[in-house]
Amino acid sequence: MEQIPMVDLKSQYLKIKDEVDAAIQEVLDSTAFVRGESVSRFQRHFEEYLGIKHVVPVGNGTDALQIALMALGLRPGDEVITPTFTFIATAEVVALLGLTPVVVDVDPHTFCMTAEAVEKAITPKTKAVVPVHLFGQNAEMEAILKLAEKHHLFVVEDACQSIGSEYHFSDGIVKKSGCMGHIGCTSFFPSKNLGCFGDGGALFTDDDELAAAARSIANHGMTVRYHHDRVGVNSRLDSIQAAVLDVKLKHLDEYVANRRAAAAFYDAALSDMPQITIPRKSTRSTHSYHQYTIQVPEEKRNALQNFLRENGIPSMIYYPIPLHLQKAYADARYKEGDFPVAERLSKVVLSLPMHSELKEDVLSFMTDKIRTFFSVG
């Protein structure tokens, strides 16, 4: 079998090539490469998809997180709670703004922060919570939102991996991922469920004032040209990337359905293996499977990864070092052993190929190889 990609962007592109090429050509013909019509068109369509009032397109997902925190008016020293098991950007923007990151442990099965952990971390300095909807499903938002309301905290959702999933509240209300807190943020990095052909991101909110602040911050702090009302940054989604995203947005639900089908195949093929813990789905959240992440015994994880590589199967470790053990974020408040779930996960997780173009024969080949490893290992 040919080398298997972790993410098959080429096959995905070839299926929609005519649509994408026409959309890009339209931008080239217009020469409106920055803030062109394709950006406002995608913005409108994404607002409709999410069922939210305001989408603010920006340069990437990290910018979205930073601009969101800036729009909230947080001040140096304010504490922001975020999980320790996540991509570095979540804490990075907190530190860059002079805020104080406060990390918490995660659920061992969903990989997301829990309301219980958040509650224990709240202090008089806490001003915001950033739940990360890791690998494609939402954190326990109902409980987190209740805590935030009780303690008057902002909630900024990191939905960079979860676009396409939904959260079902106990009263029957259903919300798209990223649309439950004060502001949601996402990334359009090419490998995401909704990815462009470069860098891109967006933040979204139902709050008119926060949306206006975010738009201004993303545009050098301007509301009127050359009138700078606040300190801002330069972050924008360019017209070509917006054109690509507008095409792919039409196919997003299909992409997510394909990912779920691939996950179901993995589940069926691996669930009877005692050495493997398959991803557990939340009872409240659907899963968009940005990643399909299994847990294997620590002493077997690296050997399994090497075995798969030797057989032409890629895999990734997300994430090998929790935030509190990263050199750049060393903090006297935290030490090894403080967050046992995250520390254990970093030693046992392994993400298998997951994308919208996975075929059954490839899935069968990969899962057979995994079974072979454990049968002889």
Overview of this protein structure:
By secondary structure, the protein is an alpha/beta fold. The protein has two domains: 9-249, Aspartate Aminotransferase, domain 2, CATH 3.40.640; 252-376, Aspartate Aminotransferase, domain 1. 40% of the residues lie in helices and 14% in strands. The chain has 13 helices and 13 strands. Strands 1-9-8-5-4-2-3 form a seven-stranded mixed β-sheet, with helices on both faces. Strands 6-7 form a two-stranded antiparallel ribbon. Helix 7 links the parallel strand 4 (126-129) and strand 5. Helix 3 packs parallel to helix 9, helix 4 (61-71) crosses helix 8 and helix 10 (252-270) runs parallel beside helix 13. The model has no long low-confidence stretch (mean pLDDT 97).
Please specify the SSE layout and strand pairing:
Elements: H1 9-15, H2 17-30, H3 37-50, E1 54-58, H4 61-71, E2 79-83, H5 89-96, E3 100-104, H6 115-121, E4 126-129, H7 141-151, E5 154-158, E6 166-168, E7 174-176, E8 183-187, E9 201-205, H8 208-218, E10 222-224, E11 227-228, H9 239-249, H10 252-270, E12 292-295, H11 298-310, H12 340-348, E13 349-352, H13 360-376
Parallel strand pairs: 2-3, 2-4, 4-5, 5-8
Antiparallel strand pairs: 1-9, 6-7, 8-9, 10-11, 12-13
